[in-house]
Amino acid sequence: MDEIESIVKEKKNNQEKKFTLKEFGGAFGDWGTLIPYIIGYISIVGLHPAGIFLCLGITNIVLGLRYNLPLPVQPQKTIGAIAISTKWAPNMVISTGFGTGIIWLLLGFSKKLNNVVKLIPIVSVRGIQLGLALLLGHNSIIMFSDNLLLGFISVAIILIFIKSKKIPSAIILTIFGVILLIVNGVFQSKSIWFSLPIFEFHIPTWDNLFWGMIYAGFGQLFLTLTNVMVATVILIRDLFPNKSDKIDANSLSFNMGVLNTISPFVGGIPLCHGSGGLAAQYAFGARSGGSMILEGIMEIVLGLFFSNTLFIIFSEFPQAILGAMLLYTATLLVKVSFKEYNSKNLPIILLSATFAYFFNISIGFLVGLGLNYILKAMKYLT
After folding, report:
1. Is ATP-binding set as a keyword in this record (predicted)?
2. Is the residue at 132 inside a domain?
3. Are residues 111 and 250 in contact, defined by beta-carbon separation less than 8 angstroms?
4. For 266-295, how does the pLDDT look when each residue is reduced to its tens digit (9 = 90+)?
5. Residue 7: band (very low, low, confident or very high) from pLDDT cuts 50, 70, 90
6. Is 66 exposed, middle or buried (0-12, 13-18, 19+ CB in 10 A)?
7. CA distance to 76, 85, 92, 211, 265, per residue, from 88 (Å)
8. How far apart are CA 136 and CA 303, in angstroms?
């Protein structure tokens, strides 16, 4: 009897620890990465914040309850970068997200995902990461030039807070942008009001699904398979060794499949799991699913009751600040793309990036993959 009471007491204590101040701080951990994409999707692509925030909120709460781990979802960065840099229509975004969702579901059900990951050489993925950085950087410079002074100030803020684990520069820049909107009279106190959301229901089209997958979707799949899924599973094993048996590549794939086949219909953005978001939340104090539940509650409140206010803020958000954010994102991608750099695989990275930049991500990946196998056949690569 005493043993049962002890187990119940321990379980109760664990439940209480889900909602500490540290967990609340951890809830903001991945917002530094999330915010630039959300602003881009709203201000450039034209998606409404209600669907974006509601889908994010529900997903975070469900995953927090299911795994009791900080397992945040992040924008699918390849799709996001292409959509923002080339100003996709909203239906192209949701159709592409739906297409990836179908594939993730099939891969999750197949239980063969770990074997698929082993077939993809990481150097081919590095090439499309560099190409993605070039695309994102090109568009960010155009946005940056909208107001050079504001752009350089924004870059200075990023450099000042670049090593801060407590205050992500993206959050500082978002606050800075809102302050400028208030000072310039674009955003006023009367703009803040409690209101029910406006949902935009979308139906994916075959045409947008096909071209969206060609331009970005397939490239995103390869990137997620190698650089996100594997990294996320490994990081969970490192940070939470006692809970690592709950997560594998197949379960992550199933999660993303369900999410991306449902959320597009209400205007949700393409999402995936990411090791970066997990690392950021952990650094800010997240140790359980409580951080995700708290984040989800905040996102649902924002989406349900303040979506019109958010739409005004992000639609008018200073382009130079967003350009600086995306420029910093591009530099991080450049850094990652040369992670396995050496003189022998450099041609693969550069050629893949070139084709990705001038044509599209999927072609860039296939070119890099083909060159990789050719060089291995010639015994140039081991």
Report:
1. no
2. yes
3. yes
4. 889 999 887 667 777 786 678 888 889 988
5. very low
6. middle
7. 15, 8, 6, 11, 17
8. 27
- What DSSP character marks residue 205? -
Segments forming the whole domain that contains residue 213? 16-377
Higher-pLDDT residue of 350, 34:
350
- CA nearest 347: which of 44, 93, 84, 127? 127
- Give the angle 247-251-254 at the CA atoms, nearest 5°: 155
- Give the mean pLDDT of 332-349: 81
Report phi then psi at 74, rounded to 5.
-125, 160
Q: Are 302 and 56 in contact (CB under 8 A)?
A: no
45 is a domain residue? yes
The total of structural domains in the chain comes to 1
Please say if the pLDDT value at position 206 is more than 90: yes
Q: Is the pLDDT of residue 48 over 60?
A: yes
For residues 311 and 33, is the Cβ–Cβ distance under 8 A? Answer: no
Question: Side chain identity at 95, as an amino acid letter?
Answer: S
Cα(84)–Cα(139) distance, integer angstroms: 8
Structural domain includes residue 7: no
Tokens of 179: 């302050």
278 neighbors 70 (Cβ within 8 angstroms): yes
Please give the full DSSP string across 295-344, using - where no structure is assigned: HHHHHHHHHHHSHHHHHHHHHS--HHHHHHHHHHHHHHHHHHHTTT--TT
Asked whether the beta carbons of 93 and 270 are under 8 A apart, the reply is yes
Is 284 inside any structural domain? yes
pTM score, two decimals? 0.75
Rounded to the nearest angstrom, the gap between the alpha carbon of residue 121 and the centroid of all alpha carbons in its chain is 22
